[in-house]
Amino acid sequence: MGIAALRAPLESVQERNDIYQGRRDLLVNVLKAMGLRVQHPKASLYIWATVPEGYTSAEYAERLLEERDVLVSPGSSYGEYGEGYVRLSYANSQENIHKAVSQLDKLVRSL
């Protein structure tokens, strides 16, 4: 299978990469517009965003889940240097990403 994969045309790989790049750019741009600090990841399906002041990463993640039905990973789950951040995945459909950022925006505006 490995040899077959290496010999296969790469168009489908580029198409998939373009899809993920579009999702990444959408999520990064919307999060930045909300005033959250984020950077474009170069090689992952996750974005790290800052947590609003006054919250731990776990508190903010819990509030997002309880009040807005949006699941993010608290940065503290990844060690002490993750505190102050939440991790969002863009390995989902654009429709679901739009729904999630809409809910996230509602929470950010209410703070």
Describe the structure.
This protein is mostly helical and 111 residues long. Helices cover 52% and strands 11% of the residues. The protein contains four helices and three strands. It has helices spanning 2-7, 11-33, 57-68, 94-110, and strands spanning 46-50, 73-74, 85-89. The chain has a three-stranded antiparallel beta sheet with strand order 1-3-2. Helix 2 runs parallel beside helix 4 (94-110). The radius of gyration is 16 Å and the shape is elongated. The protein starts with a helix and ends with a helix. The model has no long low-confidence stretch (mean pLDDT 90).
Tell me roughly what share of residues is in helical segments: 40-55%
Oligomer: single chain
| Amino-to-carboxy terminus distance | 51 Å
Q: Name the structural class.
A: mainly alpha
Tell me the number of helical segments per DSSP (H or I, 4 or more residues long).
4
Our estimate of the beta-strand percent is 5-15%
Task: Give short descriptive properties of this protein.
111 residues; mainly alpha; three-stranded antiparallel β-sheet; 4 helices; 3 strands
Which helices and strands appear, and what pairs or packs with what?
Elements: H1 2-7, H2 11-33, E1 46-50, H3 57-68, E2 73-74, E3 85-89, H4 94-110
Antiparallel strand pairs: 1-3, 2-3
